Predict the structure.
Amino acid sequence: MEKMSWEFEAKDKWNRRADGWRAKSADMWEKGSRKGICPFFASHVQKGSFAADLGCGDGYGSQKLHGEGYKVIGIDLSNKMVELAKRFEKEHLTFKQGDLSSLPFEDEQLDAVMAINSLEWTEHPALVLDEIKRVLKPAGKFCAAILGPTAGPRENSYARLNGKPVIMNTMMPWEFTKLASEHGFALIGEQHVYKNGITESDIQPFPTELKQALTFFTLFMLEKQ
């Protein structure tokens, strides 16, 4: 496989995608696949908590979380995304460019972290989990969404099969929970998001592994141990 700078390529890709992402982010958070994320987060994290949105994109999800009563700082590798996100800035809602593998926070500074489909875009997810654990307070909450087998964005990792470099770590939901457990997190909540008309009631009898196999993404809530 060709050598590359993961950070440079990832930053460049999301800088080029920023305007297109902004055009659809509101719909995703208000009516689409991400509409249930803030309610799920709020069901586990006390209002008024200080939270970081890692891989915040254009900031739409961060400002929704702030609207639910949280103090939020959004972090994204793409400086273009951060520029777009800054339109939402106000008291207790700020944005900063940064690498998820080297977070700009002190040890045990945060009450909670949200990372929605962003761990897959890091070169070493295990190192990012260690960083998240470092910056969370004891028993801090970690909300993560991991793309499932039916997610179209997996096309971003397909080129690896031809020996080409990619900047996406395809990760199964069960792999994420195993990795998170190995790095000091306990699973305390799980929610599934489907597409193509599938609902939770359609697959209620299925075990968790089969539910995850049909997901667009799985939403996890974990607690630092």
Summary: The longest helix spans residues 6-30. The longest strand covers residues 136-147.
